[in-house]
Design brief:
single chain, mainly beta, 12-stranded antiparallel β-sheet, 7-stranded mixed β-sheet, 30 strands, 4% helix, 38% strand, globular
Length: 494
């Protein structure tokens, strides 16, 4: 194995190159494909954890070991002159590379390998480790070791990656198959009467009341017996009501209260409640859903992973720990979504106000809605060194959220406070801050506390959704993991 000094170059040891970055602290590895001007040709040339494949370049997560970037030089496009491989601290360890003991990049091909121990970094949180570049019709490797104080976002912007979110999608006009958008006035705004005017905005699941909001009601139309099926056996004794199901192949009927119409799927297009812990999406188009939340589907549906919904948003998610790992589901059919048996609620936005929500509590939303990741005002540096971050949804459309237990919806018409881990969502027009509840005195010095040292404060006109738990689905609000892990089972948002 040959060791490289900073700035030294050597011929690439082969066509199939494996670049491994090993560190004593957790790092995320990425690669950028650059043209002769030293910039990416498009955002597709940025290969990282939320976009793991590019032309001739593939990212592989280390799953407990070092991340790896594989480069096949013969498969690189003709207008790509360089591939740079970078590493950035992921927030689970030191804030800068000054606190990292070992950082080594290795470029291997078969039995040949080049290694570059990177040293001398101080305030930097990201570094370009090595580059693979064309020279005289051949490929070479150069040791770089250039650091960036502004992390992965700094490297991406330095090489021309667009960190702005994608343009807002146009609102469908006159399309009868478009998802339902409620008329104005169904969602609170700063100029509207205090929410909720309906005393029960989150009804519990009852027969005949499968959802909340327009289009969510109605009994299943296919609960009646199918013509040609065997008639059910005589009814069981009162108090033990049973319903039967028989297949069209003539098998013996099955009897169970599971076949009661209240367990049948609801009807209609769009996002609807299916009981209290699941949503059914009647699809004739597309919907955005949390990755890994599908529990069943019928029809011809296509699933496409979207990371966190854009390069810029994905980078902010990686820096803040907040976001929604998304998939886009398109086609025609029925899609059923859930997240760890959490309670599900539907909210319709009419465009007059937004919804600020912990990413771990987002289950699905219509593509007419836009969202971004933003710092909660007045709460900087409360939950972590990055501050308290949430997702902010705006526009017109429906969103399905989850809570741990049945929530209370508080109308903010006086001073309102909530535990930061119990406040699931609130009107974006509200002003937020942190209130310190424990006074600093001898009791604090010897470790006595009320357990309620700080709360989120809300003022203005709007509402706050508070769940009966201080642990959101997937983990804590504000940077404990709403990003890549949210929405799978356990952990944040995530």
């Amino acid at each position: 194995m040959t060791a490289l000094a900073p700035g030294e170059n050597r011929p690439a040891p082969g066509d199939q190159l494996t670049v491994t970055v090993a560190s004593s602290a957790p790092v995320d590895v990425s690669a950028l494909l650059l043209n002769s001007a030293g910039a990416v040709r498009s955002d597709a040339d940025f290969v990282f954890f939320n976009q793991p494949v590019g032309p001739g370049v593939t990212y592989r997560h280390g799953n407990g070991g070092p991340d790896v970037v594989q480069v096949q030089t013969s498969a690189l496009p003709a207008d790509v002159d360089r591939v740079v491989v970078a590493a950035s601290l992921d927030g689970r360890g030191p804030a800068t590379f000054a606190g990292v003991g070992q950082l080594t990049a290795t470029i291997g091909s078969g039995s040949a390998a080049l290694t570059f121990p990177i040293a001398g970094l101080t305030t930097e949180s990201a570094v370009v480790c090595v580059e693979i570049y064309r020279r005289g019709g051949a490929w070479k490797v150069r040791a770089i070791g250039q650091g960036y104080d502004d992390g992965l976002a700094g490297i991406a912007s330095a090489f021309g990656v667009n960190l702005d979110d994608e343009p807002e999608p146009p609102v469908a006009q006159g399309n009868p198959s478009a998802p339902h958008v409620p008329p104005p006035g169904q969602f609170p705004s700063a100029s509207a009467p205090a929410y909720p005017s309906n005393p029960a905005p989150y009804p519990s699941a009852q027969p005949g009341n499968p959802g909340y909001g327009p289009g969510a009601g109605g009994q299943p139309s296919h609960a009646a017996p199918v013509p040609g099926q065997s008639p059910p056996n005589p009814a069981p004794p009162p108090g033990n009501a049973q319903h039967s199901f028989s297949s069209q192949q003539g098998a013996q009927p099955v009897h169970s209260d599971l076949f009661d119409p209240k367990h049948a799927e609801v009807n209609g297009l769009g996002i609807q409640k299916q009981g209290s812990k699941m949503v059914r999406v009647g699809l004739n188009g597309e919907v955005m859903a949390r990755a890994g939340s599908m529990v069943a589907y019928q029809g011809e549906l296509e699933f496409k992973a979207l990371g966190s919904g854009g390069i810029g948003r994905a980078i902010r998610q990686q820096l803040t720990g907040e976001g929604v790992p998304l998939m886009k589901v398109s086609g025609r059919g029925d899609l059923f979504l859930a997240n760890s048996a959490a309670d599900v609620h539907l909210i319709d936005l009419d465009g007059t106000d937004g919804l600020t929500i912990n990413g771990a509590n987002v289950l699905a939303f219509e593509p007419s809605l836009q969202y971004t990741v933003a710092r909660v005002q007045g709460a900087a540096a409360y939950a972590s060194s990055a501050g308290l971050f949430n997702c902010v949804f705006t526009g017109r459309g429906r969103i399905a959220i989850t809570t741990h237990g049945v929530p209370v919806v508080l109308t903010v018409d006086q001073a309102t406070y909530a535990d930061p881990n119990a406040a699931v969502a609130w009107s974006s027009s509200l002003q937020t801050g942190i209130k310190r509840n424990d006074s600093f005195g001898l009791g604090r010095l010897i470790g006595r506390s009320t357990g309620e040292a700080s709360t989120l404060s809300f003022s203005g006109r709007g509402f706050v959704i508070v769940q009966p738990s201080e642990m959101p689905p997937g983990g804590f609000i504000g940077g404990a993991g709403g990003g890549q892990q949210a929405g799978h089972s356990g952990g944040i948002f995530g």
